[in-house]
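Hi C.,

You asked whether I'd gotten around to modeling the 617-residue construct. I have! Everything is below, sequence then structure, no commentary in between.
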Amino acid sequence: MILDEIKAPNDIKKIPMEEMDALAGEIREFLIEKVSKTGGHIASSLGTVELTLALHLVLDFPDDKLVWDVGHQAYTHKLLTGRRDGFDTLRQYKGMSGFPKTKESDCDAFNTGHSSTSISAALGMAKAREIKGGTNKIAAVIGDGALTGGMAYEALNNASSLNSNLLIVLNDNNMSISENVGGLSRRLSGIRTAAGYRELKDNVESSLSRLKGGERVIERIRKTKNSLKQMIIPGMFFEDMGITYLGPVNGHDTAAMVKIFKEALRVDGAVLVHVETIKGKGYGPAERHPSRFHGIDKFDTATGLSLNRKHKSKYTDVFSTVMKKQGERNEKVCAITAAMSDGCGLKRFKHFYPDRFFDVGICEEHAVTFAAGLAISGFIPVFAVYSSFLQRGYDQIVHDVCMQNLHVVFAIDRAGIVGSDGETHHGLFDIAYLGQIPNMHLMAPKNKWELSDMMKFAISADGPYAIRYPRGEAYDGLENFRAQIKCGKSEMIYEEEDIALFAYGNMVKIGEKVREILKLKGRKVTLVNARFAKPIDEEMIRHLAENHSLIVTMEEGIVRGGLGQSVACFVHDNNLDTGVLNIGCGDDFIEQGSVNELFEAVGLDAQSISDKIMRAI
């Protein structure tokens, strides 16, 4: 196999160009086989095999820097930089990350996982190179989806002032930015980057500028040239921003990309190369269903079907059902997603109420303020978003929603520990960062029925509400405990004395197990479903303090700034005669792994919590 010859960075340069197609085929076979056993982001990586080969042929690692936007498509890059053996532990605990990580390899220039960051990071590196007088090459790869994010345009605007080269590769695998006008466009790209063209252009302008009226002639030529370019060059949007545009080029033709990348790297300034690829390329099921294979569990390579045959409903499914029903009952209910309609469970709402469904692209900041605009106009917007992505709209939540006390509902999916996507995707900060904002209300359900009840309550209430729920199967225990939801009120599940477990959201089911363990040790244990992290149920805390020596708060988020600290402050400020033990995540970023492994690693499993309580008392 040709792939066997690649054991370290830059080994690809030893392989003849005529063998690149065969190598691409071997890489696809390798990735499909490995990811079918571990799960991962397969469609994105299959679509960028030749693109990655071309970049590795023109760049020298680790001296040159390559920044991958999001990082879903970086599996081939990892393979070409000597990490073949790591694929057996891809996305597993203590194994190889599914995203670029600087601590994993010197060839990973920047940690990624969230969208639209690559150009900003690469531009910073290019400016640093200018200051240091370096000569290494710097490139960024950004997808057409990530280019919907406002941060990318901020970076492009800033990149126009760059005096040295920066290669920006636009991986266009879905959204058509412009019409592909074929050979003429590619021919013009080659002419415009040729040294002779640049020299002639500079000489003509210099000569004309010395003549009387020469500046007017130069300006007229420039306008005429731009008008012609507007008709025949599809990248004038970028050109108008001061970014040289090259392409489109076939993203599955390695030789063609090598040629255009070499041309781009000769330009002084920022250059965007438009590369057209097919997501899931080379694997039929992924080509037919790229969204399904964006991020997938273990699957059968022959059929592409997931090997995870569990059919229990997920919290996202429950949310989807509730939203469909609420949309039917209330014509003011609107749904917003930031390019995650399927992942966040809004596909049904979109189908039934398309006029009230809004996909704003990967623009969480815009989504929040857009929701505020809907709310102030009398509608009830529900923004469904992953916890780790909502972080990006923090200022808008503060300034545009909460400061005006607008009725916006934040449905926060993937809250808590999410598993194999790792540190960039865990939703561990939302309780802390939302809990500090005036007017915000924070809720979390103990089971699937309570999520339904909380959604209905939040939609019928007033002011900003956030409901967090975890990834995966919805808990169906405690079915008979369904007390009416009231703002800031918790729910008593089991009442005894001695130790009180004050559990929030997903931790209630863990609290049941902790209670069983402690009762076997002869302890009397109360279990309370906190329901609200803000406002906390002060009346319940006073009640618990009367006959419990210890209140144990339990939350699937960071302790610092979380529910537990709010309870501890209330107990302290009111001189209540009870101890408080806060259980949650520490001041660390948590790596990838299965949810159960990570719960044990950070001490959120029932046995670890029980041991902490016994030590505390």
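If it helps when you're writing up: The chain is about 40% helix and 15% strand.

Thanks,
B.
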